[in-house]
Amino acid sequence: MIYDYVIAGAGPAGCICAAGLKRKNLSVRILEKNLPGYRKVCGDGIGYACVQALEDIGFPMDRLTDAGAVQIKQFIHYIDGKKYTDILSDHNKRAFGMPRDAFDGMLQEYVSGTLGIPIDYGVNVREIRTAAEGFDVCGITAKKVVIAAGAGAAIRFDGKTLVQPSGENPVGISAAVRAPAAAEPFFMFDYQKQYDGAYGWIFSVGDGEYNVGLWLNHDKKRLKKLFYQFMETRGREYLGDHIEWIREPRGALMGIGERRISPCEGIALIGDAANTSNHRDGEGISRAIMDAENFIGRLERTRG
Ligand SMILES: Cc1cc2nc3c(=O)[nH]c(=O)nc-3n(C[C@H](O)[C@H](O)[C@H](O)COP(=O)(O)OP(=O)(O)OC[C@H]3O[C@@H](n4cnc5c(N)ncnc54)[C@H](O)[C@@H]3O)c2cc1C
């Protein structure tokens, strides 16, 4: 079978793009490097821009709470030590916290279970080749290809680099911890000069479960040290002295900055593979969703 599209990556960008292509009656198959249940390094924050982006495309929002998402009540923001607190319902805004394996799993289930789009797991797309009918992607033939393989995407086309991180991408670090449950689920961001301009965060993602992390635009070597410094200060203040590590701190590239891309007719890059994350706060899920939708919009205009 020759597909209209093959998508590399079943994250938010890949899933929403696949759903949009299906809406246009185009055939699509997704190839995903990891197995279901893989928990990628993230802050696990489904911010209000993301909720808005999902609502805008008519995503069935009750799936979020069905998948265990915690609705956030308070948004706490420190800027150089000065504290600002917002109650989200006062602003008619909704945001959620949930582990990324649950969020991505929910999108993948929607795409494959509800929309019937095939997802092949455990397929690492390293190379795309020209084929008589379009492209050969790991043995699947498609007329066009979308790369939605995230900030670490490193893929070749006919033996040449198509996309790879430039070395300039900032790195974020995050971990999952258990601590006494807060009365009100919260997002807490802490931007401090004392951490060299790093952003630290603590997000409620379950009952007594938190994502803690930090990202920095430069000086990756200091990231881990600053992360533990942050945990000693704000971590103790918000989570107490007795935290249990559920997932040790791990780092990952952020989809921000320059990227080495060699454009090629018939192959598109979307989401973090094209560095669409917000360079101010690192938020990227909503950007990935909107980029996927923009891609579908451009397609319509081109065909029109
Ligand atoms: C530490 C950290 C914290 C963050 N916190 C938040 C947050 O709280 N909220 C928020 O909105 N954003 C956050 N982000 C950003 C967010 O994770 C990304 O912007 C978002 O996941 C981008 O979606 P995507 O679909 O473009 O890429 P991804 O979610 O990275 O999905 C890419 C998919 O492609 C797969 N893949 C990769 N390579 C290949 C390959 N070669 N072949 C096949 N499949 C492949 C991957 O397994 C993955 O499933 C954070 C990022 C980091 C690093």
What structural keywords apply?
20 strands, D-Amino Acid Oxidase, Chain A, domain 2, alpha/beta, single chain, FAD/NAD(P)-binding domain, binds flavin-adenine dinucleotide
Task: Tell me briefly what this model is.
Helices cover 25% and strands 35% of the residues. The protein is α/β, with parallel strands linked by helices and 304 residues long.
Question: What would you note in describing this structure?
Answer:
With 304 residues, the protein is α/β, with parallel strands linked by helices. It has six helices and 20 strands. It has helices at 12-23, 48-56, 62-66, 100-114, 223-239, 285-303, and strands at residues 2-8, 28-32, 45-46, 70-71, 74-79, 82-87, 96-97, 119-121, 127-131, 134-137, 140-147, 155-157, 160-165, 171-178, 186-192, 198-206, 209-216, 244-253, 259-261, 267-269. The strands form three sheets. Strands 1, 2, 8, 9, 10, 11, 12, 13, 19 and 20 form a ten-stranded mixed beta sheet that branches. It has a seven-stranded mixed beta sheet with strand order 6-5-15-16-17-14-18, covered by helices on one side. Strand 10 and strand 11 form a beta hairpin. The longest helix has 19 residues, at 285-303. The mean pLDDT is 92. The structure holds flavin-adenine dinucleotide. Flavin-adenine dinucleotide binds at residues 8-14, 31-34, 40-45, 47, 50, 124-125, 148-150, 153, 155, 172-174, 213, 215, 252, 254-255, 271-273, 277, 282-286, 288. Flavin-adenine dinucleotide (FAD) binds at residues 8-14, 31-34, 40-45, 47, 50, 124-125, 148-150, 153, 155, 172-174, 213, 215, 252, 254-255, 271-273, 277, 282-286, 288.
